[in-house]
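call fold(seq) -> tokens
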Amino acid sequence: MAAIKILSVDDEAPLEMLMRQYFRRKIRNGEYEFFFAHNGLEALSILYNNPDIEIILSDINMPEMDGLTLLAKVNEMRNPALRVIMVSAYGDMQNIREAMNNGAFDFATKPIDMDDLSLTIEKAIAQINFVHESLKEHAQLESLKNDLTTARDIQQYILPRVFPPFPEDSGKVDIYASMGAAKDIGGDFYDFFRIDDDHIALVIADVCGKGIPAALFMAVSRTIIRSKGMQGCSAAVCMTESNHLLAAYSVDSMFVTVFYAIYNVKTGLITYSNAGHNPPHLLRQDGTVSELPMSENTIVGIFDGMEYKENTLQLEQGDTLVMFTDGVTEAADAEYNEFGTERLDKILSQHADNSCQQIIEAIKAGIKEFVGDAEQSDDITMLVVKRL
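ret:
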């Protein structure tokens, strides 16, 4: 550990010899390093050349620049670790009190009790070390904050953000999606990609947990599912093979719920495999809303060797499939009341003729109005597809 650097400022020459003699062992052992000045001006010069000095022992009454003026100059340096101990005659309490009111750490009276001064210095060192630890932790937090900001930007970048995503099919299908993380980064994700001329894959998923671990598992899950899906396999096979690979990557029993669908842009037929995800809601053209059957499959990433099943759904012209994570229905107000499926379906029934983006914005507005000032507790992610 580096020596603590101490500046003694006093116009009495014998004090330097006294300091060197009393603290000789700590000086010899490299614990203390002393600097000496005879007035405030000399002290400022030494401080300028040695900015790592952290304790100042300053007399109050000195020629050229007194201790109170020096204290004011030191305060202007705004060094949170620097501690000033004022020294003056016992009867000079008015100046000592002024020094303490102006930020001095402590004081000692003349004639100096060296044992008492030693304890005061040790107390100052303890506070200095605390300040250094706090500054170190603050720097680490700032670094982590910057990393989280970068991770959030990367996460948003890997999610599709261009709408409409398939301009060549703009007259056949409307697709829109949104992801709002509860923290800087989240575990939800959505995805869509073209498999061939007639088929588009749609994915919405929710990784267990929050923060960095969930975001990392989310990135791996998205990559694996997309890679398998683009091979043109069925929805059931995509989930079966993705589960096999993710089970090998799962740490601390992390898992992901997935709704994976293949949409035929010509016929409106959807073939899907629901891997433990909450059922999407089907909004018919006439405004009626129904919920797809509960998942018959288990979650992805925990149990290897699982065989996943698939189902089909026919979208007629004007029908809309609303996929979402549980952060939508479980959004809670200050009294922990949940938004729920009834409120969701009411909003959906009023927007059967709207675009997918308008439907998502209406849901987000409804959630915001319901929860009020309550803190968002879970990621809110939606993916909506409409047959035109």
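The mean pLDDT is 91.
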